[in-house]
Design a protein that fits this description.
Blueprint: E1 30-32, E2 41-47, H1 54-73, E3 77-79, E4 82-84, E5 86-92, H2 97-111, E6 115-117, H3 122-135, E7 139-141, H4 147-151, E8 157-159, H5 164-178, E9 185-191, H6 194-209, E10 213-220, H7 227-236, E11 240-244, H8 247-259, E12 266-269, H9 276-282, E13 290-293, E14 302-303, E15 307-308, H10 309-320, H11 326-345, H12 353-364, E16 367-370, E17 373-376, E18 393-398, E19 401-406
Parallel strand pairs: 2-5, 2-6, 6-7, 7-8, 9-10, 9-11, 11-12
Antiparallel strand pairs: 1-5, 3-4, 13-18, 14-15, 16-17, 18-19
């Protein structure tokens, strides 16, 4: 992947939907809502409301706003028997990490927010973390997925989406359980760029836990002829090929494999196949390719605010005009974490600086079930303060459509394994 402050291509396909644009927010470096008259909890949103990451930035904003609307419709967050509404403030990072840090500081200093909801990109998230530490204000990040966010051990930041290196590794375990006869070997191709490499390393490191024998790990440049790599892998004949990279590279993997008349029993990548451009570029050859998502409306999770995952999806479609992806869902779940922590904290607004530190400690003790899945933050290790609880959902292209195939509780179709020979 390109530098981590760029938008992730797996989400660009949403650009055509009504969810892609948030009216009134575009191009404004700093926006805020009208002040409420009664005591409120103040939440600041840092995200890309302009610049190259605007589509993803609006996904995060819309997810956070879905929670604020839902909880305010119930009278607000419950604390000590009373309810207090949430007032939302917005800071535009303009798709620049440095600008995001400045916007976060303004929200804290000028608007006195009690908590921040984090940016769309990992780059901006990393830039905002020192501001949170400086002012002792907690941040809940519904989008950041780079493991580099959590390797820094941020005291005041908490992540809802599992880091990409954990979900890629876990997905191999799900695939291995679905395969009949059971898959035994895997080859990993990893593109030598930050995000893709982290994904490939997750596949590589997760092979052992999945009970798979890693036959080779190939680090390749973002562009170039893949024929030598695929030829080597074909000679090793693994059951699974796992690719750390985006759709452009996977398209090349499929095309090269077919040109060599080599068809693995399973082909999996982390992100990219949900982009319609992938299936369009390959046509029928895209069928059978497996991908990974963190959340779908078909999962069996639920909570007291949004109801089931399906209920949340229907609500989001009604409000936003398009089906929410896992990013919007994770951002909405960020609000559930805040509401739960405030209730346990028991402090009514306005929060003092000491209360905000105590709120950080309450967030760290989160252990809840939500429509998005379980949320509990790591207390140590390389994923410190990240939520690595959710089990990834496998999707597969079947008949030109992307369908959920595993785990069992999220499946909408049977998993096709082994893949048939090329036609």
């Amino acid at each position: 992947m390109a530098p981590i402050d760029r938008s992730f291509s797996r989400r660009r396909f949403l650009g055509g939907s009504a969810m892609a644009i948030s009216a009134g927010a575009l191009g404004m470096p700093f926006v805020r809502t009208a002040r409420a008259q009664a005591a409120t909890f103040k939440a600041g949103v840092i995200t890309s409301l302009s610049g190259e990451n605007i589509l993803g930035g609006n996904l995060t904003k819309q997810g956070y706003d879905l929670w604020a609307d839902a909880i305010n419709a119930k009278g607000g967050v419950e604390v000590a028997g009373d309810r207090f509404k949430v007032e939302m403030f917005y800071g535009d990072d303009q798709s620049s990490p440095a600008t995001g840090a400045d916007a976060a500081e303004r929200l804290i200093v000028q608007n006195g927010v009690d908590v921040l909801f984090g940016p769309y990109t990992s780059g901006s998230t990393i830039a905002v973390q020192p501001i949170c530490q400086k002012y002792q204000v907690p941040m809940i990040s519904g989008s950041a997925e780079s493991p580099n966010v959590w390797k820094a051990k941020p005291e005041f930041n908490f992540g809802i989406i599992p880091a990409v290196d954990t979900t890629s590794g876990l997905s191999l375990g799900v695939l291995a359980k679905l395969s009949k006869p059971a898959a035994k070997t895997v080859a990993v191709i990893s593109v030598n760029e930050p995000f893709s490499k982290e994904t490939g390393e997750g596949f590589r490191d997760g092979a052992k836990d999945a009970g798979l024998d890693l036959v080779t790990y190939e680090l390749v440049p973002p562009e170039g002829d893949l024929t030598p790599v695929i030829s080597k892998i074909a000679a090793l004949n693994p059951d699974i090929i796992a690719v750390g990279g985006h759709e452009e590279v996977l398209i090349n993997v499929v095309k090269t494999s077919k040109s060599l008349n080599y068809r693995p029993k399973a082909l999996i990548m982390h992100y990219g196949i949900t982009n319609p451009a992938f299936a369009q570029a390959l046509g029928p050859d895209a069928d059978g390719t497996t991908g990974v998502v963190v959340w779908l409306p078909t999962v069996s999770y639920k909570d007291d605010v949004f109801g089931t995952a399906k209920d949340f999806s229907q609500m989001a479609q009604k409000k936003l005009g398009g089906e929410p992806d896992y990013t919007a869902a994770a951002c909405a779940a960020s609000g559930l974490v805040l509401g739960d922590a405030l209730k346990r904290l028991g402090k009514k607004p306005a929060l003092t600086p000491e209360d905000r530190v105590a709120l950080k400690d309450a967030i760290a003790e989160t252990d809840i079930q939500t429509f998005y899945g379980p949320i509990k933050f790591e207390k140590d290790g390389p994923h410190y303060h990240d939520n690595i609880q959710p089990v990834p959902v496998l999707v597969q292209i079947q008949g030109g459509k992307t369908v959920a195939v595993g785990p069992k509780e999220a499946a909408a179709a049977d998993y096709i394994y082994p893949l048939p020979a090329w036609k």
